[in-house]
């Protein structure tokens, strides 16, 4: 998947989000750190093109809500959550790059609920790795591309905001020996 | 950056690297936001136990640690000396072993003897946090002071810091001198000659300047730290009277006017108003004393999170070499309670950690 195809997928996500939510009023796009954040910004730009009004964009850092703090090797950097105003009664669309086990989304929903009671929470992802990997009953409402993968593979999403290149590739997961 | 914060205990600032200090401060900055939310709690340390073991009276620090633990969803237990079996004659080590048998994840200790936390750390599987040991160190105080300075000055490197008062007995001064000079500030200390001995600079092996007159230390200072007169450590014997101390070394507004125009005034508390600090300064516009207290919670959250939270992987599941499954039950958290293998395992844990650590990826 190259930059142009990412762009087309995001444009489609934006129009689906607008259609499903009957416009962009009451809409807040919330990106999950890290790569969900630029994706949320880009989708917001596209919604602005469609509706003439850019929905506010928030940022969630789910580090403190993870269920695997004690098992991750490197200590994750906590970088903070920023939500634009009150989320009470709003339509929230969570945005992330890859949907895999669903645990990140679970953590994001938990954190979101700590900030208020949104009317509705939806999920948009650029890549869905497929239902068979899910460890929690979580599905995406908007999917950029469904990419069935094996557990031994990693989906690498590269965005110019963080990476040199733009694109999505499947790589083989490095074994424990190779990682060290 | 994230991976090399490899710290099991927080015993003092002296042992920390600049990178570790900066990482702690950066993490604390994020935690400051948690206390501003409507729901001031995150689940990061759910199911972890933090014991506050205080052998000296303390309101601020103990409460601060307790609130920090609770905002991270850890269970906090407070033990103070007057109600504990220490008053029945139990030794520190026996107290520690008994607490250890209840499998806490972190023990926060304050003790009147320097080195008590180090002593505990050798015998304990739990992460030990020094909350003040004798006249030695008070690392979280120095960290919260640094966080406060950074917030107001935007940096620490290149600042001129004056520390005024009972430097000899002050663990706050020691930790601050280590931290601030590591981060590139220039530190001067001043006070009564008996409490700020000229040989102090050599003693502490740090680039600190000892001034005879407090005015000399204060000129052009960006930060003025006022220390508490520690009467419980027999400061009285070092000065003729509290009144004389107040007259000659109590900080007045005219002193603060010698400092830089935008200088900030700090005090670790509890204040002796009218002795080491005048009310004009304490309640004045340049005083950051209450902000220091607010930042204290954020710093202690960062410390507990990094030591009792993610740090668990060092001696927890991974130590067994088991492939840690997500959401594993607390019962296979690895050997506990004074196992003699503990020390050896801890030393070997660095290598183990790298071998097991995966690159940070969420998918």
Structural class of chain B: alpha/beta
- In the CATH scheme, the class of chain A would be Alpha Beta
State the major sheet of chain A: 5 strands, parallel
Q: Count structural domains of chain A.
A: 1
Helical percentage of chain B? 25-40%
CATH class bucket of the largest domain in chain B: Alpha Beta
Number of helical elements of chain A: 4
Give the end-to-end Cα distance of chain B, rounded to a whole number of Å: 21 Å
Order of helices and strands of chain B: HEHEHEHEHEHEHEHEHHEHHH
Give the CATH H-level superfamily of the largest domain in chain B: Aspartate/ornithine carbamoyltransferase
Specify the biggest β-sheet of chain B. Answer: 5 strands, parallel
The portion of residues assigned to helices of chain A is: 25-40%
Uncertain stretches of 5 or more adjacent residues of chain A = none
**CATH domain topology of chain A:** Rossmann fold
Radius of gyration of chain A: 16 Å
Label the overall shape of chain B: globular
How many β-strands of chain B, per DSSP?
9
Quick overview:
The complex is a heterodimer of chains A (180) and B (363). Chain A is of the alpha/beta class and 180 residues long.
Can you walk me through this structure?
The complex is a heterodimer of chains A (180) and B (363). With 180 residues, chain A is α/β, with parallel strands linked by helices. Chain A has 4 helices and 7 strands. In chain A, the strands form 2 sheets. A 5-stranded parallel β-sheet of chain A has the order 2-1-3-4-5. In chain A, helix 1 (3-20) packs across helix 2. The two termini of chain A are 29 Å apart. Chain B has 2 domains: 18-137 and 294-347, Aspartate/ornithine carbamoyltransferase (Rossmann fold, 3-Layer(aba) Sandwich), CATH 3.40.50.1370; 139-289, Rossmann fold (3-Layer(aba) Sandwich). Chain B is built from 13 helices and 9 strands. In chain B, the strands form 2 sheets. In chain B, strands 7-6-5-8-9 form a 5-stranded parallel β-sheet. In chain B, strands 2-1-3-4 form a 4-stranded parallel β-sheet, with helices on both faces. The longest helix of chain B is centred in the C-terminal third of the chain and has 21 residues, at 289-309. Mean pLDDT of chain B is 83; it is low at 311-363.
